[in-house]
């Protein structure tokens, strides 16, 4: 097909002519950065884990892990410049309310599960602290000789889980990241730990498993009740916290007793993770047996 015939064929369809480049409005680089910066911060360590696994030289493994963690820390510092500290934002400014730098996309439409992340005044310092401590822990692990490739890959995987936990605004997504942050720690303790590493790792796993089951019950229960307020239900934590949805769920039959049960189960899950007395007995063993960097992040 000649050049002119191809151009005529392409322009003959209104749909093609409207959808082709250039776009109807220019792309704002700052908007592009703001809408994707959190996703990059979350998944950059995961990309680093894949890069570490593909690196053959053990010496380069350490530098590769350090580079990805340093880049993640630098990007987290960039949030300080992108975040609006004026305090003038309200729920009318954005569907997510005071949450900023939101990235949102449909994930499992059947259950209204979304990839929904954002940052607020509470999660912002936690993200920066996580990336900074992870970088320090990487430096502290420089002399790891036993399977360094697997060690640093798990460490980067753990960082993705921690960052996703702090930034997730969808309950299901939060649960996924929450669980992902536990699995690498289990292997870090069980493989690179001290003399009683197997005992400490299994104890850590069993305690956190109980907390995970409790949180899963809350996850399912809240979603089922939210179906009375929103068609198909929702896992959107921002919408679930709105007064209108809360009133609709209450009117649908969530009594004070049911809410208290959900609260106790969620509290159980988080008290195990903190950990707090009397659910703290896994921590002394895990701290003693875990590698130094693992103890820092515990």
Can you characterise this structure?
This protein is mainly alpha-helical and 298 residues long. The protein contains 14 helices and 2 strands; from the N terminus they run H-H-H-H-E-E-H-H-H-H-H-H-H-H-H-H. The protein has a two-stranded antiparallel ribbon with strand order 1-2. A hairpin with a 4-residue loop joins strand 1 (100-108) and strand 2. The longest helix is centred in the C-terminal third of the chain and has 30 residues, at 197-226. The N and C termini lie far apart (64 Å).
Task: Give a brief rundown of this model.
The protein has 298 residues and is mainly alpha-helical.
Task: Please name the defining characteristics of this protein.
ubiquinone binding, NADH dehydrogenase activity, transmembrane helix, 298 residues, globular, 14 helices, mainly alpha, single chain, two-stranded antiparallel sheet
Secondary structure: elements and pairs:
Blueprint: H1 3-11, H2 14-19, H3 29-54, H4 58-82, E1 100-108, E2 113-119, H5 123-140, H6 148-167, H7 171-180, H8 182-192, H9 197-226, H10 237-240, H11 243-251, H12 256-273, H13 282-289, H14 292-297
Antiparallel strand pairs: 1-2
Helix pairs in contact: 3-4, 3-6, 4-5, 4-6, 5-6, 6-7, 6-8, 7-9, 8-9, 9-12, 9-13
Keywords: Membrane, NAD, Translocase, Transmembrane, Transmembrane helix
Domain NADH:ubiquinone oxidoreductase chain 4 N-terminal: 105-161
GO molecular function: NADH dehydrogenase (ubiquinone) activity; NADH dehydrogenase activity; ubiquinone binding
């Amino acid at each position: 097909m000649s050049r002119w015939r191809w151009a005529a064929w392409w322009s003959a369809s209104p749909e093609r002519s409207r959808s082709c480049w250039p776009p109807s409005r220019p792309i704002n680089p700052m908007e592009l950065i703001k809408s994707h910066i959190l996703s990059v911060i979350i998944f950059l360590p995961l990309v680093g884990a894949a890069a570490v696994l593909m690196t053959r030289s053990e010496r380069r493994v350490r530098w590769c892990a350090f580079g990805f963690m340093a880049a993640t820390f630098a990007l987290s510092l960039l949030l300080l410049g992108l975040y609006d500290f004026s305090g003038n934002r309200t729920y009318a400014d954005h569907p997510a309310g005071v949450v900023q730098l939101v990235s949102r996309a449909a994930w499992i439409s059947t259950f209204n599960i979304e990839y929904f992340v954002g940052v607020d005044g509470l999660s912002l310092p936690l993200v920066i602290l996580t990336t900074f401590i992870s970088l320090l822990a990487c430096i502290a692990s420089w002399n790891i000789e036993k399977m360094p490739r697997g060690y640093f890959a798990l460490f980067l995987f753990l960082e993705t889980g921690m960052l996703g936990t702090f930034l997730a605004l969808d309950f299901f997504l939060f649960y996924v990241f929450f669980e992902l942050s536990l699995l690498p720690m289990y292997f870090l303790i069980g493989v690179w730990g001290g003399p009683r590493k197997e005992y400490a790792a299994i104890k850590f796993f069993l305690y956190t498993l109980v907390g995970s089951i409790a949180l899963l019950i809350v996850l399912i229960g809240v979603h089922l009740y939210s179906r009375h307020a929103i068609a198909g239900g929702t896992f959107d934590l921002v919408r679930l916290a709105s007064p209108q949805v809360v009133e609709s769920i209450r009117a649908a039959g969530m009594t004070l007793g049911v809410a208290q049960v959900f609260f106790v189960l969620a509290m159980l899950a988080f008290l195990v993770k903190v950990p707090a007395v009397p659910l703290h007995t896994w921590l002394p063993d895990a701290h003693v047996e875990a590698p130094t960097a693992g103890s820092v992040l515990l």
